[in-house]
Amino acid sequence: MVRKEAQWLQTALRIKGSVISAIYQQVILFGIFGVLISILYHFKVPVSQPILGSVIPSIVLGLLLVFRTNTAYERFWEGRKSWGSMVNAIRNLARQIWVSIDEKEPEDKSRKIDALNLLVAFGVSTKLHLRGEPISSDLEELISQSKYIKLKNMNNPPLEVAFWISDYLEQQYNRNCINSYQLASLQSLLNLLVDNLGACERILKTPMPLAYAIHLKQLLLLYCFLLPFQIVQSLGWWTGFISALVSFTLLGIEAIGLEIENPFGYDENDLPLDAICTNIKLNIDDLTTLTPSLHK
């Protein structure tokens, strides 16, 4: 119990991974503005206007923030589901390739390993594609040099990798190493990979509507600037602190939504795509150490 309480406190005080660095300047600004209003009120300047609380009802702003956060988290969760489905499809596709495709020639095993590495390359190239990064050396050890050079000139590298995998499966079918039912099963898994790629691209290329984002920021700005006028009569010198605290809460919620709406980057709260791709590579390496009973 003591350990859990310590972990809870450690998490609550953690700076890395929070949105404090993104909002602290605005929070300080609203706090200073609240102190200024307190000073004016102290010198009998008529700045107390409790009626301003009805300009932007708290429930309206709260609903807008909840909608913003829920929409962003839905995008984050859909991205995670797409990558989870992609990982499962790669595992199933690799397993079926390794077990089902007959090895009629000595080179067939090395060709299967190359095909399995293409599956890893699909995951890595998808990660780079979603991040808008060029083809890196991470792919060079997974594919041949000619494929690596060709991939550099492609607008959608994962789609090209999927083409190579499909081409390999068709070759094995034409060589009678798999039958038509096995080919259909393998191709359906490959189609699932491409579907998940498309789902991630949809998240990436469909940002939050600009008008909604602008209007929410305008309401937040207006609410936080009007707040000191509403509370200065009741709180006096505490107005600046409470204004900063309220702005920290509201701006933090908005910043969280902004950070997680694109879950494919390098932020602390983004999806761990590097770890996922590393795990895919480890799974494929483990699979290639196994020998199917059919080939013993």
Can you tag this structure with a few keywords?
single chain, 296 residues, mainly alpha, 10 helices, elongated
Structure commentary:
By secondary structure, the protein is mainly α. Helices cover 73% and strands 0% of the residues. It contains ten helices and no strands. It is elongated, with a radius of gyration of 27 Å. The two termini are 53 Å apart. The model has no long low-confidence stretch (mean pLDDT 89).
Number of strands: 0
Tell me the fraction of residues in β-strands, as a range: under 5%
Q: What is the CA-CA span between the terminal residues? A: 53 Å
- Major sheet description: none
The number of helical elements comes to: 10
Q: Tell me the overall shape.
A: elongated
Specify Rg, calculated over alpha carbons: 27 Å
* Fraction in helix: over 70%
Class based on secondary structure composition and strand pairing? mainly alpha
SSE pattern: HHHHHHHHHH
Task: Give a quick summary of the entry.
By secondary structure, the chain is mostly helical. The chain contains 10 helices and no strands.
Strands, helices and their partners?
Blueprint: H1 2-12, H2 20-42, H3 58-100, H4 108-130, H5 145-152, H6 157-174, H7 180-204, H8 210-235, H9 239-260, H10 273-288
